[in-house]
Specification:
Distance between the termini: 23 Å
CATH architecture: 3-Layer(aba) Sandwich
Shape: globular
Number of strands: 5
């Protein structure tokens, strides 16, 4: 049986980490929820060289940890890996980091990507208001660019890919149920 790496990708504040939280109760001897340790993450717009150095070490460590996890588990679920790196590397015109290291992932691992995007800019702003977050990081132009890059990368890269569009009022149960359908997980 092939091992499965399921990566939850997508827009900031779309619910990726909340989905991981909801999936914690599904963790068992076969399925592991992997959380990224972003300790020491430099701000790209202020420390570009430090960010690239940190990212190279971070991705290399992630791949090594994933390989160890696949010695014990058949399924690992995590947030952000290949697609997010491709999107933001393109957006910020920086080196594509993950693609260099992904070849070091075990050969018996199949990668699946579940991407959460907002349907439109208005829904993104509404979602931030609904969760009490007043830090709107992207203007409408950048928002559209990021959404388009996710769609484009989902077609370009050779990985199984599903996009779920969320709205400002989409609740976490709806996202969880959509995700479980995507991975064909029977909740019973």
């Amino acid at each position: 049986m092939n091992k499965k790496l399921i990566v939850i990708e997508g827009f900031d504040r779309a619910g990726k980490d909340t989905l991981l939280d909801d999936l914690e109760s599904f963790q068992n001897n076969n399925l592991y929820i992997y959380r990224n340790d972003l300790t020491g993450l430099p701000k790209y717009n202020k420390e570009q060289n430090n960010f690239i150095e940190w990212l190279n070490k971070f991705i290399d460590t992630q791949i090594n940890q994933l390989n160890k996890l696949f010695n014990k588990y058949d399924i690992v679920i995590m947030t952000r890996l290949i697609i997010s790196d491709e999107v933001y590397s393109t957006l910020f015109n920086r080196e594509h980091t993950t693609i260099k290291y992904i070849k070091n992932l075990r050969k018996d691992v199949e990668s699946f990507n579940y991407c959460i995007l907002f349907d439109n800019y208005k829904e993104y702003v509404q979602r931030l208001k609904n969760i009490g977050d007043n830090d709107i990081q992207y203007n409408e132009r950048d928002f559209e660019k990021i959404n388009q890059l996710y769609k484009l990368k989902s077609q370009e890269l050779p990985y199984s890919f599903n996009i779920n569009y969320v709205f400002g009022n989409t609740n976490k149960i709806e996202v969880l149920n959509n995700f479980l359908q995507y991975i064909n997980y029977d909740k019973r």
